[in-house]
Amino acid sequence: MAKEEPLVKEIVPQSEDFSAWYISVIRKADLMDYAPVRGCIVFKPDGYELWEACQEGLNRRFKATGHRNAYFPTLVPESFFEKEKEHVEGFAPELPWVTEVGDEELEERLALRPTSETIIGHMYARWIKSYRDLPVLINQWANVFRWEKRTLPFLRTTEFLWQEGHTAHATEEEAREETLRMLEVYRDFVETDLAIPVIKGQKTPRERFAGAVETYSIEAMMKDGKAVQAGTSHYLGTNFAQGFGIQFLDRDNQLKYVHTTSWGVSTRLIGCLIMVHGDDRGLALPPKVAPTQVILIPIGPAKVRDQVVARAKELLQALQAAGVRARLDDRDEYSPGWKFAEYEMRGIPLRLELGPRDLEQNQVLAVRRDTGEKLPISQDGLVERVQALLEEIQATMFQKALAFREAHSYQAETLAELAGILQEKTGFVLAGWCGDDACEVKVKEETKATARNIPFDPPARMKRCLVCGREAQHTVWYARAY
RNA sequence: CGGGGUGUAGCGCAGUUUGGUAGCGCGCCUGCUUUGGGAGCAGGAGGCCCCGGGUUCAAAUCCCGGCACCCCGACCA
Questions:
Q1: Where does residue A446 rank: exposed (0-12), middle (13-18), buried (19+ CB within 10 A)?
Q2: Is the whole model's pTM more than 0.90, yes or no?
Q3: Which of A136, A194, A219, A479 has the fewest CB atoms within 10 Å, i.e. the most exposed one?
Q4: Strand B proximal residues, A:334-373, Cβ < 7 Å
Q5: Is the C-beta of residue A20 closer than 7 Å to nucleic acid chain B?
Q6: Homologous superfamily of the A409-479 domain (CATH)
Q7: Which CATH architecture has domain A18-277?
């Protein structure tokens, strides 16, 4: 296991103050900076590259499932929001408006989109005429705006980056399949690439997206035991189709409304990545999405330096030629020890140290970010060994995160039990629910925990509602959430 | 949006109570020595003290107003 003494003084230990730890890590690792408008952040290159890695992993999967990217405008006419009642009520309080241009007032206010269901619904109505036009499978990468009262870098910002998929189908069955297919795409991406274990499940009606028939989510546990909704997928029924008149003529010559879905993940994933894998030394990035996977550090006094660096460059080229994202830090102005701490703080998965002793013995010293293990490895077959190590690190990080989640998961029969657990510990609590909204509200009022989701695959079936004691209709994960 | 806290050099902070030359550590620059877990010595640069008003001979400091960030709450795909 890695020793977790904070070598970087400015990083506040997690155990002392988790929020302060989070802020200090993202600043120290140079992922973002605050912008002049409240709640808005700049994604600096090291932070933005994490988002680019997410885009690559998701685009590959979206395209494999038949989706294509497109782009719709940021500005949405006010009248569009009135076409789906629940939708407008859900977003009204957090919409920013463009009301004038120059010194002339606009005839109709324009909202900065909080999501694109309405404008896309409008366009789909023009594009879809026949069953032969279906399904429409479109995704867009975009910025959206939500004027939340309380912001936190990456997890909840006024303007953020996300991806929103919008599909239209001839039948309910097909749309429901799509909704679950994309939820599974998210699970696969987040677990396989980000090494974050998630819980797939269905949202309670209270937590549903404004305007959706059903909302599903994947939920992840942060190291402070709190939950983050890492992705959502919605079956929208014909709600938006009716609001925007998206109709098609079916095989049977009947005019019908399409069934639509929407699904999204955001830059919030970056926040998850940090809070799931990070420790008192800083970030820890899973190799699959780490912009730099391997950092090579030459060591040694001036007389052997040229020799060491020359060999390091050869090894670097070999790694890069094999597709490993490796970099060499041969700057002379920083000591090796400084570089060790620096790259650990930045979360680079694997460090390779090369010094005079290594040259003599035809080896390099590999140091894993996830475990702190130091492994001398031969320069012969280095590339294969490094690739294998990166895979091991990826697997170990996922297993560690899974073990953490399991160690912080509990079950409760009663509200008092749930409250007791959350008072002493942090984590997820599995409990029964009768299906009554009042009981769900009661849990929130008493414990600040919310229903995260109704898992597809719960570890146990709970028999009684933890609030009223009636027979449970569902088994629910409760947790405090970001 | 309510309660609390913070805002001084790139970063972390002291100075504010009791108004009077703007400081410390790290970082940065120059030089020499160093290099296997944030190296040492010497010299040096760097400030609209968050912003706007006010009081005063004089404001980082006192008064009024605003903004931003952090924490707690309400709100929240």
A1: middle
A2: yes
A3: A136
A4: 334-342, 344-345, 353-358, 365, 367, 372
A5: yes
A6: C-terminal domain of ProRS (3.30.110.30)
A7: 2-Layer Sandwich (3.30)
